[in-house]
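Box S2. Input/output pair 1.
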Amino acid sequence: MRNPFKVVVVTGVPGVGKTTVLEHLARIASRKGLKLKIVNFGDYMLETALKEGLVKSRDELRRLPLRRQLNLQALAASRIVEDSVGELGENDFLIVDTHALVRTPAGYLPGLPFNVLEKLKPDMIVVVEAEPGVVVERQARDRSRYRGDIGGVDGVRRLMEQARSAAIASATRYASTVLVVDNREGAPEEAALKLLEALEGL
């Protein structure tokens, strides 16, 4: 039912600030002597897609044909676990930064389908949330990514609601706990501390 190490999947809509929260988590955990390995699921997908000449940028991933995306997801999950075996022990944490739901031209794609869950076997699924208006502002400040297809405040609100439901649905397969963390503007360390407290309870 589980990997040799503890697996925590951290999800959230684009621009919610997952990566920033995880940067704070890494610093706090290091001070407390906890070993974390933080990986970005999309980075693994992108590396394979670039090698195969399927895309030129990260934002093109979600516009690939559905079956191609599913294949990239499966490969990414396998490689993440393979890279962590031997590096992490039973008291260590593999933290996977990803999305519970991905908006594609063909509709919403689960970020944690069965074949991905089967590899990751998460102990916990975290949903990072923020006020939709704040998320839109964060998206606008990030010039490195294109997120104009998400749909403004209403689009973010709908995606956030659906992503939370998707995370809860994914959690049932491996009896993962689900933690919702509010990433308030200017307070990512507060969100990181809440996440750390939950990790220590696993």
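Box S3. Input/output pair 2.
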Amino acid sequence: MTDDVELLIAGGGLIGLLLGVACAGGGLTVAIVDRQDPEAMLGEGFDGRSSAIAYGSRRVLDALGLWPEIAAEAEPILEIRVADDDSPLFLHYDHRELETGTPLGYVVENRVLRRALIERARSLTSLSFLAPLAVESAETSPFAAVAALSDGRRVTARLVAAADGQASPLRRAAGIGIVEWRYRQTGIVTTARHERPHGGIAIEHFLPAGPFAILPMTGNRSSIVWTERAELAERLIALHDAAFAAELAARFGDFLGAVEPIGPRWAYPLGLMLAERYAARRLALVGEAAHLIHPIAGQGLNLGIRDVAALAEVIIDTRRLGLDIGEDAVLDRYQRWRRFDGLLLAAVTDGLNRLFSNAIAPVRLARDLGFAVVHRLPPLKRLLMRDAMGIVGDLPRLVCGEPL
């Protein structure tokens, strides 16, 4: 590569890789810089988590030609059941209620997504993956951005995309403020094996400490996203295998027969974070550099994928006109397009978590009445289903399944 590219991406996680693949595939010269060695990222033990991929996000992967590399290891979500503790009422979404009849989404192991993205990145001659390295700083001017890398190299770019996570050093250096708070909850993530098939049904069971999600994976496996009080989560993670398995089974239930955790377990403190702006001079924030939301609806990665689809469309269209992809007007358009979606989803997930993570009788009654109302209004129910699928609103071309 030369030391001059059109787009430099700080962060080679799922969002950074997807942005790089989309833009390089659209003809831009791109460099991705990440602290991790790509070979380590492909290791079995690097990340054993799974992600819920909404139908709109699947369209993005399809439009970029990535879905065929993922489909065989993606489990369709055919139904979603939302239950409130021991209430007899529950909310049921079924893909057969939609005119399209398509799955509501898919559950894919992160290693599968990462492998497909890295393999595609390596096949694109206009994309350079610089790792293990870090972007130490980025100086911007009205004409260009110059990034200083940890090996002493300086890379000049028209635009820098910060995909460097919730603590984003580039966001802080640009003086972009954030609104944030921490929940007194920790997310425990693991994989469980069960006797009976899940039938493609995802379950969100609201308990007083927070939601307990069971997401269908290939085979008789499910991904567990277990929200627990922070002080108890520490003790749960530290339990020996048999005791942890008993705690998991007590919350999982026996509807799929005997259940046991398999593989590692992870714990993550939960919080909400929103950047006050999504852009600064020659800098765009994507993914968790711009927003962090509660995992209650499984939408965090999907929100970042929509960021990628919008930013890629804006800058590729600008380049095709022969204009500067890092101009303020271009970044303003991206920010206007994406900030409301992030703000709305943060508010919804925060509200749902506060509404359901308690056992106060009047609040429980209000929740149950809400379930009953949605069941009795099929048009509202279909709208909520389409929203969960990520196919409502002002959608980028990629989310519509159209090429850039």
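Caption for Box S3: The radius of gyration is 21 Å. DSSP finds eleven helices and 19 strands in the chain.
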